[in-house]
Amino acid sequence: MTDTTQKINLLGLSPAKMEAFFIAIGEKKFRAQQMLKWIHQYGEADFEKMTNMGKPLRAKLAEIAEIRLPEVVYEDISTDGTRKWVMRMPGGSSIETVYIPEKERGTLCVSSQIGCSLDCSFCSTGKQGFNRDLSVAEIIGQVYVAAMSFHGPGERRERRITNVVMMGMGEPLLNFDNVVDAMHLMMEDNAYGLSKRRVTLSTSGVVPMMDKLGEVTDVSLAVSLHAPNDELRNQLVPINRKYPIAELIAATNRYLARLPDRRKATIEYTMMEGVNDSLENAIELAELLKQVPCKINLIPFNPFPNSGYKRPSNNRVYRFRDHLVSQNHIVTIRSTRGDDIDAACGQLVGKVEDRTRRSERYINAVQLDSNQ
Ligand code: SAH
Ligand code: SF4
User: Fold this and answer.
1) Number of domains present in the structure of the chain
2) Other remarks on record (predicted)?
3) Whole-model pTM?
4) For residue 175, how far is its CA from the centre of ligand 1 (angstroms)?
5) CA neighbours closer than 13 Å in the CB half-sphere of residue 233
């Protein structure tokens, strides 16, 4: 029996780990760069086709290694260009990945965990509880699949994905090492070559890990705030009881201060009717955020069954925005895109036995208007 589980999956090796791999098998380290290109730029998963590797090396690789791709169980392309995949992970759970094209860029929303332990009150992923962390291969595999959907195997990849946001399922800072390695692959020239400004990690505020993140990378940061005071945030985002707003703001500023450029944080604020969308909330938020160089992204709540929350009317959203703008904040409102894909998703979710309607949130969540 050939046991593929024993083979090392090269898909998930960061540039540093790829070098270590080739050195460990007695090869020169430049092989790592060649392999990264084959996998991530050409989408080649067959060692035999890697012509610059030499026959004996190809044979050796076939024996000890593999390029194991995620299992795509559903793919859909909306008329507005939005693309959506459901990938089944070993163990049976599925995750979704969404690509949103815009005029000047294409943004991919990537998941970091199956489920989430943080249990924010308005989040369908949180309602599922935590299942497990995704491996590096499972995270970068989402980018691979999306990138490959624009070209055939072996062809050089077009740069259709210009931005990645870690805003899918899960809290990326609670799967720290795997997310950091995957982001390094996203930014590696011989892999996806994205600029650090165009890779964004979104966190609900795991403060100690924000500092750790600043020590190892300089990607862009999005902070899921959703409330202007601790009393309200404690109800919506339970991790706030551990790391309250003042600590979160301080950690955000420490992260920004480490960056070599004058980048701003994105503050995400999911708006729920009658919960956090009043003018008083806007006044308090405007004041609070004077302490942080930021852009504010208002996300009208995406309803899902039994959520207990409602999306506010456009007028309430505009009133909230107008106050923030009057206080000199930069504000964007995420609009819904890929409507026909949303509809498809309703059916899709049933088909793949996915219990949530995450795609709606993804489609809204990826529209970071960061002008990057
Ligand atoms: N765990 C991370 C990243 C994933 S969530 C975080 O919380 O930041 C990505 C974004 O989607 C977060 O800002 C989250 O608050 C938002 N979100 C979750 N559920 C939502 C819903 N039902 N409607 C609108 N936005 C939602
Ligand atoms: Fe987890 Fe983010 Fe959902 Fe909160 S909003 S439960 S942190 S995925």
Assistant:
1) 2
2) Reaction proceeds by a ping-pong mechanism involving intermediate methylation of a conserved cysteine residue.
3) 0.90
4) 16
5) 24
